């Protein structure tokens, strides 16, 4: 992958956005690089209004690079996080907020409010959080809201809880309580991995634009598959070979896609509602 000497400047979209949040997320994810985790774009400087990063010129997708991505992503996840919904280290931007895209909030969770299981965290902080925003905007009606609530109730009861991938489980077991879950990119759609298909690349790509937090590793994989990713089967195969996924992971993929679909309902309106409610019906 080539690097351009001219920095890339990313500016806050509105007054609610603090670009130091994204800078802390990039640095947190980059901590896994030393163990073979995904490469992360370098932060040059950051303040509330702007983030300066190294400028990357991406290469073309390839199967070998996809296999490297799968392996490296598994290692990044295994770097771990202290609780479900925890923000990156160095987060000092107030606990009443999170990552803001347009006027939609992706929350982070104080440790004192952390859920004990993934399902409760996912239901309360993400699924119902976005569903409420969509309902308040008039995007989802009462019938749709009740359907999502049924899924959330099952999530809170732990019906869909499952072990993390093997490397994350090993990290949790070895951490003496300091790690509870996986370290996620948090917005891992295809556009947020820049490809490096060169033979010299160690990880096959580089991560950009995260909403990093503690969660279940399957969420990143589900997001990667939601809108399509080149050589996705190679990524998933390599990931599974590096850090075995729990039984039934394929059947849970759409469940992990429910929150981002609801988020898209908030951001982009009713065009995403049918997809979100179709997923909700499958798990209600």
Question: Please, could you describe this protein's structure?
Answer:
By secondary structure, the protein is of the alpha+beta class. It has one domain (2-283): Aminoglycoside phosphotransferase (APH), C-terminal lobe (Aminoglycoside 3'-phosphotransferase, Chain: A, domain 2, Alpha-Beta Complex), CATH 3.90.1200.10. 43% of the residues lie in helices and 15% in strands. Strand 5 and strand 6 (104-107) form a beta hairpin.
Strand residues, percent: 15-25%
Structural class estimated from helices and strands: alpha+beta
Name of the CATH architecture: Alpha-Beta Complex
Number of strands: 10
Rounded mean pLDDT score: 93
H and E order:
EHEEEHEEHHHEEEEHHHH
Say which CATH homologous superfamily is assigned: Aminoglycoside phosphotransferase (APH), C-terminal lobe
N- and C-termini, Cα separation: 44 Å
Quickly count the domains.
Answer: 1
Describe the largest sheet.
Answer: 3 strands, antiparallel
The CATH topology is what?
Aminoglycoside 3'-phosphotransferase, Chain: A, domain 2
Global shape: globular
User: Major sheet: order of its strands?
Assistant: 1-4-3
> Level of helix content?
40-55%
């Amino acid at each position: 992958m080539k690097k351009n000497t001219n920095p890339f400047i990313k500016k806050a979209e509105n007054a609610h956005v603090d670009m130091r949040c994204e800078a802390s997320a990039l640095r947190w994810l980059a901590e896994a690089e030393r163990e073979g985790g995904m490469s992360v774009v370098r932060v040059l400087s950051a303040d509330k209004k702007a983030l300066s990063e190294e400028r990357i010129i991406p290469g073309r997708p390839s199967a070998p690079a996809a296999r490297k991505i799968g392996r490296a992503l598994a290692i990044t996840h295994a770097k771990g996080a202290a609780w479900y919904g925890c923000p990156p280290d160095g987060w000092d931007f107030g606990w009443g907020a999170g990552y803001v895209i347009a006027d939609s909030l992706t929350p982070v969770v104080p440790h004192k409010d952390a859920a004990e299981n993934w399902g409760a965290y996912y239901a309360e902080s993400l699924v119902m959080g976005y569903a409420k925003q969509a309902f308040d905007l008039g995007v989802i009606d009462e019938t749709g809201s009740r359907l999502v609530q049924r899924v959330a109730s099952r999530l809170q009861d732990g019906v869909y809880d499952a072990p993390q991938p093997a490397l994350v489980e090993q990290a949790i077991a070895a951490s003496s309580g300091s790690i509870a879950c996986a370290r996620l990119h948090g917005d891992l759609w295809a556009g947020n991995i820049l490809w490096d298909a060169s033979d010299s690349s160690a990880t096959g790509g580089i991560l950009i634009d995260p909403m990093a937090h503690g969660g279940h590793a399957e969420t990143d994989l589900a997001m990667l598959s939601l809108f399509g990713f080149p050589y996705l089967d190679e990524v998933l195969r390599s990931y599974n070979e590096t850090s075995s996924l729990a039984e039934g992971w394929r059947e849970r993929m759409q469940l992990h896609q429910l929150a981002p679909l609801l988020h898209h309902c908030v951001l982009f309106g009713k065009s995403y509602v049918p997809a979100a409610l179709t997923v909700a019906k499958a798990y209600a």
